[in-house]
Amino acid sequence: MAIADDAQSPSAVQRERTQRPNRLFKNMTAKIASIPMVATALVIFVGCTVWTIVHSFTNSRLLPRLEFVGFEQYERLWETRRWLVSIENLAIYGVCSLILSFVIGFTLAALLDRKIRGEAVFRTIFLYPFALSFIVTGLVWQWILNPQFGIQSVVQRWGWESFAFDPLNNADIVIYGILIAGIWQGSGFIMVLMLAGLRGIDEDIWKASRVDGIPVWKTYVVVIIPMMRPVFITALVIITSGIIKVYDLVVAQTSGGPGIASEVPAKYVIEKMFQSQNLAQGFAASTMMLLSVLIVLIPWAYLEFGGKKRG
Amino acid sequence: MKSIARLMAASAIVSASGAMAADLEVTHWWTSGGEAAAVAEFAKAFDEKTDHNWVDGAIAGSGGTARPIIISRILGGDPMGATQLNHGRQAEELIEAGLLLDLTDVAEAEGWRDIIHPVSLLDSCTVDGRVYCAPVNIHSWQWIWLSHQAFADAGTDVPANWDEFVAAAPALEAAGKIPLAMGQQPWQSSGAFGVMTVAIAGLDAWSAVNIDKNADVAAGPEYAKVFEAAANARQLAANSNVQDWNQATNLVITGQAGAQIMGDWAQGEFQVAGQVAGEDYTCLPGLGVNEVISTGGDAFYFPVNGDADVTAAQKELASLLVSKEVQVAFNLKKGSLPIRGDVDLDAANDCMKKGLEILANGAILPDGNQTLSPDTSGQIEDLMVEFWNDPSYSAADAQAAYAKIISRAD
Predict the structure, then answer these.
(1) Is B401 within 8 Å of chain A by CB?
(2) Is it the case that residue B75 has pLDDT exceeding 70?
(3) Tell me, what CATH number does B94's domain have?
(4) pLDDT tens digit sequence for A144-190
(5) Which residues of chain A does B72 touch, with a Cβ-Cβ cutoff of 8 Å?
(6) Which residues of B touch A274 (CB under 8 A)?
(7) Looking at the predicted complex, does its ipTM rise above 0.90?
(8) Which domain does B120 fall in, by range?
């Protein structure tokens, strides 16, 4: 931004004209310092991604080899019931977890922001689940949702004999059982992010809205939330990447069961690559995952950055 | 004085063979009670009979969990000293890539080809005439385990074959028992289906599909019967909500379930629980219909290592694993059959004797791991785990999906 602003003033234009041959060497130390990171990004992220995509068109088994078979792996992938179930689960988990994380996270943050007593205590309690790994979270919720030891048996022992709540053993709703655990783990973190955003809002804005007699909820929806756009973007990126890579939670809670009802794409990739010793099939699946991320990311990036240039 | 003698002995060994005591990390997935007791026999023999040390690297879970860890360690350049794998096609590409130690000199020096019976076990270890693994036991899937207590409680006789078992199932259910115990792990679903195939479709159909990869037979009437029977078995197993195979075996041991289709490794569990074959439980090979057993099993592979001491230790371990004494000690604990016909298994129980007899008669077939690639097995496992868990998945649909997998198998 600073450079762009400079460029607008006539003296800066002149200076740049005289120094143009050296532009590459401007800020030399900064550029040298960033070389390792740039190299890492190119080799690790771009390089390995390209390598993976190339090998997804081969018939590699346990070891990668370059015998191309065209789209065979992709055809097989989209004929596989397990993959289709995985995609469907990811969609349900993704949409629900995105909405619920935002709603719960923001609501909790807004409540805490009302200057309540014992805020630190509540904040700690809500954030605590985030300190647990997905594996621990998954095991804890596996027990809580276990019909023999968990909620179901407790309620039944209270006297409500016909009470049934065993999402992890019911293929139709098992993904919601996983969703519960995911939300429990993640919403505290989103709450803290939101709370930080809310604290960044100038106190004067609240005073102004109070003077104008705008109701509190309306101030939140119409004034505060639009002002918190950067926080929302950060939260969105964190939640979305968490959704795409969900794996350990499923492994700990259900290992994909009952049957294949709670399979997710990341699990398919891992198992095809290492258990079935079919690298190319795993690569094809991971390429599809990358593609789905790009489909979401590219329009958003276009709106976000393309818009700024025009403005 | 003693220490000087030891020193001299040690230096003598060093100068004689150039080998020194090495710590050999051995990875395996034998973690259930009976299995752990059996693998301890290996460790004991290795520690006592050689200068080297056995460093136990048990990986909990099942083969499905352990194999990826083992293989990625070998590929990633952090090889263990020795590792269990099911011989057959799982290590095919590792051998081609030159990552596993060639044991041909040990095998030839000790005449493995003459002592290992059936010799197909050694063939599974052999690639282009070179031997790459030491088979340690024969495991067969084709068994059903029946709880005497469960059938006594239900007031019926212990069945002698699959049809009688199906007929007795309603009585078991009436007595509040689970007729068929089944764990939910994919390999169990797929294995039980394999057993039913051999028993119900017969050997010819089985080999047409599993060896010749004939998709027409897989879509044909013999297999349709198998899928019908499996759909029926699915009903019988509906209430068995356990994950691991040994938990399912435990249901049979405690008489909560009537039967379990499981390989002969289940025997170790009965033994640990102090049960006696023929009195507390009955085992029927080939579901009591077709008395054949598959000769899959476990073998030890030795990843190539740059350290000469380790290589020497690896070869010593390989020859130890095949030796008579160790074979007897290990297999009695494990409940599996020894890989050599010349050992004395007087201590074997009823079930093992049945197995040995079938083996001696030559009624054997190769194991799924030997005929199908891990990729194909994986697809079949995916299909089977879905089929066994989803009552709305019809037998005909599953058969169509199965035939498709076979048509693509390699």
Answers:
(1) yes
(2) yes
(3) 3.40.190.10
(4) 988 878 888 888 889 888 888 888 888 888 999 999 999 998 888 99
(5) 274
(6) 67-68, 71-72
(7) no
(8) 20-139+296-361
